[in-house]
Amino acid sequence: MIVAGATVKALQAALPLAALENRILLCHALGLNRVGLITQSEREIGVDEAAALNNLIARRQRGEPIAYIVGKREFFGLDFAVNDAVLIPRPDTELIVELAIERLPQAGRALDMGTGSGAIAVALAHSRPDAQVTALDVSSAALEVARANAASNGATVRFLESDWFAALGTERFDLIASNPPYIASGDAHLAQGDLRFEPVNALTDHADGLAALRTIIDNAEQHLHPTAWLLLEHGYDQAAAVRALLVHNGYSDVQSWRDLAGIERVSGGRLSTKTP
Length: 276
Ligand code: GLN
Fold this sequence. Notes:
Layout: H1 8-14, H2 19-30, H3 34-39, H4 47-61, H5 66-70, E1 72-75, E2 78-81, H6 94-103, E3 109-113, H7 119-127, E4 132-137, H8 140-152, E5 157-161, E6 173-178, H9 200-203, H10 211-219, E7 224-233, H11 239-248, E8 252-258, E9 264-270
Parallel strand pairs: 3-4, 3-6, 4-5, 6-7
Antiparallel strand pairs: 1-2, 7-9, 8-9
The protein binds glutamine (GLN).
């Protein structure tokens, strides 16, 4: 129990969470940044601040993700607003952004399918202002978050409410990237940690984990220009299955890339020029 009169310095040692989480919640409750924690270390907190801090700590102790409690998460060097309508951006997902930045031709058209918070689309548009980036999601609540993130990061992204390809008509792109729901229904991870609080439809396909990936791979051809890349994030044990789907659908240069933990996290291929 935190009480008024405690100093900022004393609180950093006294809060009951892990050191990094303590610091994040302390900054949030007191409206300070990291530097403020140092320069104002002797400041004594007030009654309202103590109450706010106790409330934040209780939420965290009930398991609520830090990113939802403070309403934001950093991704690709940018600040993203998040709420429980969207997945919390993962560091793993920076890989697909890097791959897309490298592969999108100058002034090319890119599509992010199932954009959620807008992490992939906004990071790509921010790094490649020459690009024309479209992002879609089936959830209007997610699109609201994504739109705000594009605006706050000064990124130009066109947003579409669409169930995968449904609203795209005959549009084609030079690159499609997606981090779709890929956890199999019943996977134990869904009942653990942050995932318990995240939108279940963004995590699982309610099937074998490959259903959304299959839908995208089986239908992307009509929305890609010849030689355009299709890049897909997937689970730690899905790389071989995703590569097989890409090969089966006639993609060339099919390969997988490893994330910072050394896990094959993204697979992709290019639409073959031979496609009629
Ligand atoms: N990478 C997330 C996790 O395992 C899952 C994200 C997703 O299904 N697209 O926590």
